[in-house]
Write a structure and sequence with these properties.
It is a single chain. Helix content is 33%, strand content 23%. By secondary structure, it is α+β, with helices and mostly antiparallel strands. The strands form five sheets. Strands 9-12-13-14-15-16-17 form a seven-stranded mixed beta sheet, with helices on both faces. Helix 8 links the parallel strand 13 and strand 14. Helix 7 runs antiparallel to helix 11. It starts with a helix and ends with a helix. 34% of the residues are buried. InterPro entries: Nuclease_put_TT1808 (IPR012296), Restrct_endonuc-II-like (IPR011335), Uma2 (IPR008538).
């Protein structure tokens, strides 16, 4: 009698355990389905598993999910090796213990065979389980890609035409989390090209060659002379959106700007955003510079002023075009420049003219080649670019300091001269 009773109780326990395991499995699959945005194949027997069954398989992401019951031991090492035979599949094993979900182990292959989406899934949702070796391998892969991008950018045979207007950056990787990208940047790897994260895509866009650095240095010198109440920084990683991090050439922030909550800070430093950012595009295209305005003025940031400077390649007679575009957050349409000024030793090409006319009305496009005096000396009225100080000192107790004018001035000729006499 006791034997039969014990057998019945054991069977009931097994049945209850089976139901718990099934319920736990369903929850795990549901969570993975939401995170990955894909309907999985449930109870799947892929060829690379040699007849063994997976609880769920996400085809697009190439992620295999195995859920272990409370009474089950993890499969032996040979089982993981079966999964590794498929060169593009990531295995995630989840165990149930005391009603807690815990990532117990996952296997991975050479990084070159593992997709960025799989890596970012692990990093975004289970960063505590990602081995440092895996992250180091990823960063090494990116560094190699940046070296390749450097050679591609140097090999560009620049001519002042369509490419200077619409050239796209070089994609390093896609579907990268902001946190992972910032960890790479904060590790200060030696990268010889300028890069940014745009909606999860890492893009290399600029080689900081002589003309670029000459303008950057001259403009920094000018801005530093404006006021002792301003702090001028060089390149800085700035969070501009959920999956976007930009790195302007110059950042300007007033002293004592309101300290934000950590979740609204410019980056992991916890500091407030700058009020002015400057981008200098040499190999970077005119279109790329213009499109940056949207995220610089996103709801995530408190940036007030964006200045874009486009440098064009020299022509056969050694003349060259230059262009300044000024954007203000308080403009009715912040992504439309309030100033578009040609200030080189030559007028803009037809390609650039046509593009500018598509983003701004003709009467707001002026300077060299648009009926104004040549930019051939200091203090010419048409080439004095006014920067509003009320926006520079935005969100500072007391507002604009006493004795500060309504506008600070950038003499655009001095930027042209910095290139000519570099």
């Amino acid at each position: 009698e006791n034997v039969e009773l014990k057998r019945g109780i054991d069977e009931l326990k097994k049945e209850l355990e089976f139901k718990k395991n099934c319920k736990f499995q369903e929850k795990c699959i549901l969570i993975a389905r939401v995170l990955l945005g894909e309907e999985p194949v449930v109870e799947y027997r892929p060829s690379f598993m040699e007849g063994l069954e997976l609880d769920a398989f996400f085809r697009s992401n190439r992620i295999a999910l195995e859920v272990q019951g409370a009474q089950h031991r993890l499969h032996n090492t040979s089982w993981y090796k079966d999964v590794k035979k498929n060169s593009k599949t990531l295995l995630i094993v989840i165990g149930r213990k005391d009603a807690c979900v815990k990532i117990m182990e996952f296997s991975y292959l050479s990084l070159t065979r593992l997709t960025s989406r799989q890596l970012n899934f692990l990093h975004s949702h289970h960063s505590n389980t990602m081995p440092p070796s895996l992250q180091n391998e990823l960063f090494s892969k990116w560094s190699s890609a940046f070296d390749s991008a450097r050679h591609k950018l140097l090999a560009i045979k620049r001519q002042e035409g369509f490419e200077e207007v619409k050239r796209k950056g070089i994609t390093i990787d896609k579907e990268v989390s902001r946190r992972l990208y910032l960890e790479f940047c904060e590790g200060e790897p030696k990268v010889s090209v300028n890069h940014r994260l745009i909606d999860g895509k890492i893009e290399a866009y600029e080689m900081p060659l002589d003309p670029h650095s000459a303008v950057q240095g001259e403009l920094t010198y000018i801005i530093r002379s404006w006021s002792s109440r301003l702090r001028v920084h060089g390149e800085m990683d700035i969070i501009v959106g959920t999956g976007s991090v930009y790195r302007p050439d110059i950042c300007v922030r007033p002293l004592n700007r309101h300290q934000p909550q950590s979740s609204r800070a410019v980056n992991s430093s916890g500091n407030p955003y700058p009020t002015l950012v400057v981008e200098i595009g040499n190999t970077e295209s005119l279109n790329s510079l213009h499109e940056l305005a949207e995220k610089y003025f996103s709801q995530r940031t408190t940036i007030q002023i964006y200045l874009a400077i486009k440098l064009y390649p020299p022509r056969r007679n050694n003349t060259f075009a230059l262009l300044a575009m000024l954007y203000l957050r308080n403009n009715q349409n912040p992504t439309t420049p309030v100033v578009v000024k040609s200030f080189g030793t030559a007028p803009l090409s037809d390609h650039s003219r046509i593009y500018l006319q598509s983003i701004e009305r003709d009467e707001f496009i002026n300077g060299v080649g648009f009926g104004e005096a040549p930019c051939d000396g200091a203090n010419i009225g048409e080439y004095q670019l006014a920067i509003p100080t009320n926006l520079l000192f935005n969100d500072v107790p007391g507002g604009v300091p006493g004795g500060v004018p309504n506008n600070f001035i950038v003499d655009l000729w001095s930027l042209q001269d910095a290139i000519l006499n570099n």
